[in-house]
Amino acid sequence: MKKLFTLVFVSILFIQCASIKKHNSHLNDLISAKDLKSDVDFTYKKLQQLHPDLYEYITKKELDSKFDSLKTTIRKPMTSLAFYKKLSPVVAAIRQGHTFVYAPTKLMSKKVTKAITKKGTGPFSQFNFDFINDKLYVVKNKSNNKTIKPGTEVVSVNEVKPINLIEEYNTFYSSDGYNTTLKKRYSGKRFSSYFTIENGLKDSLNYVFKINDSLKKITILRHQEDTTSNSLKKNKLKKTAFNHAKRKVIRKKKRVNGYNKTENIFNRNLRFIEKDSSIAILKINSFKLGDFRTFYKESFNKIDRYKSKTLILDLRDNGGGRLNEIVNLYTYLADSSFVFIDESEVVSKSSLLKGAYFSEGTFVEKIIKTIYSPLLYGYLFLTVHKGQNGKNYYATQTRLHKINKAAFKGKIYVLINGGSFSASSIISSNLKGSKRATFVGQETGGGYNGTVAGFMPKIKLPKSDIKIRIGLMLFAPHYKTDQHGHGIFPDQEIIPTLQNKIEEIDVELNWVLEDIKKQKTKHN
């Protein structure tokens, strides 16, 4: 039996390596105009079959015209990347943030990825960038070259001007609706990804920086950290029983709070300020990772025990995550029983089965799925029903929920920005609509009235091998707004300046703390 498992594992590994090699070898192949037009038709057909809110922000006539026009521009063979650049803006025109085309990129095996990681930190990862007023700036320098101060403008990278690449790639994806803050927030962070799509991974980059009104060329190499001191620290930690207990606590915290290895940060954090712990700050980077039920239970019991009067919920740059998590969190924030979302609209019963169930997986996985498909279809047959308007609906989290016994009863502030998307926008919609919280920051990148997400299969186009992700379920919060196509607007808009970011001054949080003081003075 052991030999059989080994054989299966080796076979799967061989197939994966062969698949990666085949994919990479065809990236620069020219695909015929006929095949590309076929993929255009395939894309639109899949969107119509699977996306339940396709014409919310664009009419059918307009979208039909865009797809027809796209085909007329395809007159000669092109690479998958060139085709991606033509197809993506058309898909982005539906203005649904969860639905987009993936750029064709070189795949890497685990072995290659490990080898690159071992070589050290890449020349992009040594900086944090932000894109402000059409210019790319360094806001944090983690490289060995300390002449590059935070606030330094990046004029070019390998002779590529940031604004040209950012403006081009910003047409390839969308926020929900007509929002603009999402792209403003993401542009600087995504510049390195855009560059890598065009040029591949690099061990060195030739930057041109603007330093003291002069242009300076600086080459940044992949940097390998000195691991000797880290190894010595780890060896010292192993020697005492106290450190053993400490490591156990850290492991539990990573499991409960969730831990992002890439950024070396905990996903959820609770802290208190003021001597009397009257202000609690709950920072949630995403609604993914970790044991959220244990975290929220322990956190709100602690808030109750400390008798905190104000809660600041920080959802800035929270790109979303699990629906059941935000429902659980809301039971601690709501002041009365609530319905969290409406029934989720879907195209049909078969759209969930074909789109989410059969779209992905290996040949063997699809065989197994086929065997169990009658059970799933039976479940969908019972749960997906047709409404009075003739549309199909899937009921999830639509029942009346009771608030938790440890629900917070004090004042709530919510910090938001363009990076607040998907699930973080849905919970914000209900907090805003129920007038439970005061919002500070910038308009969310996710829509107030809902988003199309849930199951989001990656569907491969037959001829070009490009993949498109399509949301299958329309999640609409219980509370709505008449302002069509926008996110949650803050009650107090605050936009951090470049200098604020350089000096790491949290102007949104500072405004909240000042407002708390003012409110306290009024009541005294």
Condensed summary:
The protein has helices at 2-25, 33-50, 60-73, 80-92, 110-119, 162-169, 181-199, 228-237, 241-257, 292-305, 323-330, 349-357, 363-383, 423-433, 498-502, 507-523, and strands at 100-101, 127-132, 135-141, 153-157, 204-211, 214-221, 259-260, 265-266, 268-273, 279-284, 310-314, 338-339, 344-346, 384-386, 392-394, 400-401, 411-416, 438-441, 451-453, 458-460, 467-469, 473-475, 492-493.
Structure description:
There is one protein chain. The protein has about 525 residues and is an alpha+beta fold. It contains 16 helices and 23 strands. Strands 9-10-11-17-18-23 form a six-stranded mixed β-sheet, sandwiched between helices. α6 (about 160-170) packs across α7 (about 180-200) and α12 packs antiparallel against α13.
Q: How many strand segments?
A: 23
Report the structural category.
alpha+beta
Shape: globular
Please count the helical segments: 16
Q: Percent of residues in beta strands?
A: 15-25%
Oligomer: single chain
* Radius of gyration computed on alpha carbons: 25 Å
C-alpha termini separation: 76 Å
Uncertain residue segments: 4-15
Organism: Flavobacterium sp. WC2409
GO molecular function: endopeptidase activity; serine-type peptidase activity
Domain Tail specific protease: 308-495
Protein name: S41 family peptidase
